[in-house]
């Protein structure tokens, strides 16, 4: 049905010695909707492919509804993809673990959610929240090692003094502290990949950067790789090695963070960047290059999903979805303005 | 995209530091929530004014008291909130002294408000046109239904929605369009001041940009003032003439937007500035602010920021600093100045 639109090779950092830990190929999710026969489909995610190396951060940016959380939930195996492959430590896990994720996958790929409160049980102490995964995944030898390990993890995420924090309940913690507990809980099972879905967007602005700095420290010291999902492209630049832009469930552009922000190629990426508040440039002085709102994802028409808003739209855009074009080292884009102009994947 | 010289609209001349009588003058406002666990001093002794045509921004983290101030000005605070002191003068009249009749005329006609998460505030069983017509007819009973409907379509056009959609229900519109409808409602009676409490927080940057540009344009055309509330300091600096920064119920710094951006003086403002990664320029490791905002049931003694302040001195935990003009037009509440 679909053709590979992007190989992991096009994604890999040219000279990075680090091994690829997680790779997804043509990940696709459709949700049936509509009347009695559920005959219509929401195309939430279409043919998304990428790889994450050890200790590397890939940011996924895009507006609300672009499919970011869907991608994370599929990789966390909270739901099954319509098609596509997930390859973890070389294993095609949708094939080898058909009945759901194995214990080793679930400890290797952890998820942190946007709302740190929603992911905690108000009747259990912090210690309990971290002991559970330690026990389930057999991460300590003896019972007597449990509490010391909890304290060690709390100290790692900057929650001091750990013995005090361990005895608290979720409502006794601030949002930032709760998010740190969520990170400690994820760390408890020695993950290689952390899927972080807007981990700071619900925190007070003054404590957001502290949580990002913590995640950066764990990347450097433990070698954790992240899929960092965010609305905030400036925070992606701060934290991520590479950025991928999603629009209407499709990959539009990807590059090293500085390259993507410094030399955006796709008209949608340019629009996104032009809309970020910038105190040094007063409002109204900059042209907004496109207006309008994202398209409906229910049985979308063929062609480029950005065509309805794109200031540079051509006839071919409404018929053919553009293929991936590599335009610079580690920088690819899907847009008919680049390459031969007619190449593409007919939908 | 790259940094440009500071544009004229941010320069001091245009920052309407109202030499004339201010349109809105908030003096020593204090508000308390009388909760079961004790009184929460949500707003303490806050003073600021807004001139004709000026955009005044209130910045600060969640819980710092921004919405409480907005609700106090509109007189829509409900129990357990109690205004424990101060005055709110609009065009010289004290809003806090108005009776119900006075308030009825004052709200929407003189000051209107766009609420936080307003896009969910529309009535789902009325068309967007009916919601606008409702406001117009309630305040201008002589307007005929047809006149009000024409005006509603015109208002939708003004905020960038096709006037033909006047018969649409809210669920037929996207979040961004619903937010525009709410702004159209707020504009219906041509108010002199519009309070916007986090008007675009729930929206994507592209939609946010579009709406803010529209508001900027409308403000020039219709010449109203704005009290603009957000926790997004970048957006605030971009959009406001003057800014007050709130921390734990108090204004800790107040000055022109460009001055605040170029020369933040209060350690809290400096910390906030160091909390937002930049899109351009060198990549620096940011530090943010250590600790977290205080529990307002037991606010810290002295300067409320002292437990988190990297520059605190002995005096800070003992004595409360007052907001003083430390440079012309630049007010700071901090013992360092
Ligand atoms: N269970 C579901 N049934 C039907 N449609 C769904 C379902 N879950 C998600 N969708 C749709 O899939 C698309 C992508 O949703 P997703 O939650 O991945 O977006 P997102 O990029 O995470 O957005 P946000 O920034 O708002 O979190 C949206 O159009 C959404 O409405
Ligand atoms: N209904 C209420 N009852 C008790 N406390 C409240 C209520 N509403 C707000 N507060 C408290 O008042 C303070 C200021 O809140 P608010 O004005 O909503 O802040 P902001 O708009 O800046 O986020 C906070 O400490 C908040 O917890
Ligand atoms: S493919 Fe066409 S419509 Fe899509 S972004 Fe490129 S130019 Fe615009
Ligand atoms: S008064 Fe003291 S504690 Fe408060 S901001 Fe100034 S230096 Fe910091
Ligand atoms: Mg999401
Ligand atoms: Mg508020």
From TrEMBL, chain A:
Molecular-function annotations in GO: ATP binding; ATP hydrolysis activity
Family annotation (Gene3D superfamilies): P-loop containing nucleotide triphosphate hydrolases (3.40.50.300)
Keywords assigned by UniProt, alphabetized: ATP-binding, Nucleotide-binding, Transport
GO biological process, one term: peptide transport
Record keyword Nucleotide-binding present: yes
Domain of life: Bacteria
Cross-referenced SUPFAM superfamilies: P-loop containing nucleoside triphosphate hydrolases (SSF52540)
SMART domains noted in UniProt: AAA (SM00382)
Similarity annotation: Belongs to the ABC transporter superfamily.
Protein name, entry field: Oligopeptide/dipeptide ABC transporter, ATPase subunit
TrEMBL record, chain B:
Keywords for this protein: ATP-binding, Nucleotide-binding, Transport
InterPro entries in the record: AAA+_ATPase, ABC_transporter-like_ATP-bd, ABC_transporter-like_CS, Oligopep_ABC_C, P-loop_NTPase
Keyword Transport: yes
Gene3D superfamilies the record matches: P-loop containing nucleotide triphosphate hydrolases
Gene Ontology molecular function terms on file: ATP binding; ATP hydrolysis activity
Any single biological process term in GO: peptide transport
ABC transporter domain ranges (all copies): 24-273
Pfam (any one): oligo_HPY
Family assignment from sequence similarity: Belongs to the ABC transporter superfamily.
Protein name per UniProt: Oligopeptide/dipeptide ABC transporter, ATPase subunit
Species of the source: Herpetosiphon aurantiacus (strain ATCC 23779 / DSM 785 / 114-95)
Lineage of origin: Bacteria, Bacillati, Chloroflexota, Chloroflexia, Herpetosiphonales
């Amino acid at each position: 049905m679909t053709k590979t639109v992007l190989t992991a090779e096009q994604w890999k950092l040219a000279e990075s010695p680090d091994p690829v830990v997680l790779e997804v190929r043509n990940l696709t999710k459709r949700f049936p909707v509509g009347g009695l026969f559920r005959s219509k489909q929401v195309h939430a995610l279409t043919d998304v492919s990428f790889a994450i190396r050890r200790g590397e951060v890939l940011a996924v940016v895009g507006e609300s509804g672009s499919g970011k959380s869907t991608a994370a939930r599929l990789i966390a195996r909270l739901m099954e993809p319509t098609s596509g492959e997930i390859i973890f430590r070389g294993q095609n896990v949708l094939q080898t673990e058909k009945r759901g994720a194995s214990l080793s996958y679930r400890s290797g790929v952890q998820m942190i959610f946007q709302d740190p409160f929603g992911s905690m049980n108000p009747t259990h102490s912090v210690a309990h929240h971290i002991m559970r995964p330690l026990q389930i995944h057999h991460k300590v030898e003896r019972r007597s090692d449990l509490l010391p390990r909890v304290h060690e993890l709390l100290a790692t995420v900057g929650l001091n003094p750990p013995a005090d924090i361990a005895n608290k309940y979720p409502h006794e913690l601030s949002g930032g502290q709760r998010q740190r507990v969520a990170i400690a809980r994820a760390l408890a099972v020695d993950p290689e990949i952390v899927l972080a879905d807007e981990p700071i967007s619900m925190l007070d602005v003054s404590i957001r950067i502290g949580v990002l700095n913590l995640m950066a420290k764990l990347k450097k010291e433990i070698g954790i790789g992240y899929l960092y999902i965010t609305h905030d492209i400036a925070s992606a630049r701060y934290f991520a090695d590479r950025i991928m832009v999603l629009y209407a469930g499709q990959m539009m552009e990807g590059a090293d963070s500085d390259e993507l922000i410094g030399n955006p190629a796709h008209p949608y990426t340019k629009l996104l960047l032009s809309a970020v508040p910038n105190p040094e440039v007063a409002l109204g002085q900059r042209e907004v290059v496109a207006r309008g709102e994202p398209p409906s994802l229910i049985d979308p028409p063929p062609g480029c999903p950005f065509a309805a808003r794109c200031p540079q739209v051509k006839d071919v855009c409404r018929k053919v979805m553009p293929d991936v074009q590599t335009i610079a080292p580690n920088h690819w884009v899907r847009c008919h303005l680049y390459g031969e102009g007619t190449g593409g994947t007919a939908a | 995209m790259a940094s440009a010289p500071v544009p004229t609209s941010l320069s001091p001349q245009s920052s309407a530091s109202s030499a004339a009588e201010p349109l809105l003058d908030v003096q020593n406002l204090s508000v308390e929530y009388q909760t079961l666990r004790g009184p929460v001093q949500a707003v303490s002794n806050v003073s600021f004014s807004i001139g004709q045509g000026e955009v005044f921004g209130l910045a600060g983290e969640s819980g710092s008291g921004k919405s409480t101030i907005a609700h106090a000005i509109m007189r829509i605070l409900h129990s357990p909130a109690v205004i424990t002191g101060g005055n709110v003068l609009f065009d010289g009249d004290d809003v806090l002294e108005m009776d119900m009749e006075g308030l009825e005329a004052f709200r929407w006609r003189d000051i209107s408000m766009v609420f936080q998460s307003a896009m969910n505030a529309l009535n789902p069983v009325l068309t967007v046109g009916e919601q606008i017509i409702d406001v117009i007819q309630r305040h201008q009973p002589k307007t005929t239904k047809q006149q009000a409907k024409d005006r509603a379509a015109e208002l939708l056009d003004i905020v960038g929605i096709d006037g033909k959609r006047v018969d649409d229900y809210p669920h037929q519109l996207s979040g961004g369009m619903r937010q525009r409808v709410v702004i159209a409602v707020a504009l219906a009676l041509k108010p002199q001041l519009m309070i916007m409490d986090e008007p675009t927080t729930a929206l994507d940057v592209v939609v946010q940009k579009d709406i803010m540009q529209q508001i900027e344009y409308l403000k020039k055309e219709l010449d109203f003032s704005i009290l603009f509330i957000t926790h997004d300091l970048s957006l605030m600096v971009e959009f406001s003439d003057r800014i007050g920064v709130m921390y734990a119920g108090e204004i800790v710094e107040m000055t022109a937007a460009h001055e605040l951006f170029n020369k933040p003086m209060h350690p809290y403002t400096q910390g906030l500035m160091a909390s937002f990664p930049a899109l351009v320029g060198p990549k620096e490791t940011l530090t943010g602010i250590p600790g977290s905002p205080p529990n307002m049931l037991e606010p810290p003694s002295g300067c409320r920021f002292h437990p988190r302040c990297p520059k605190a001195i002995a005096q800070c935990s003992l004595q409360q600093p007052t907001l003083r003009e430390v440079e012309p037009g630049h007010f700071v509440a901090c013992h360092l100045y």
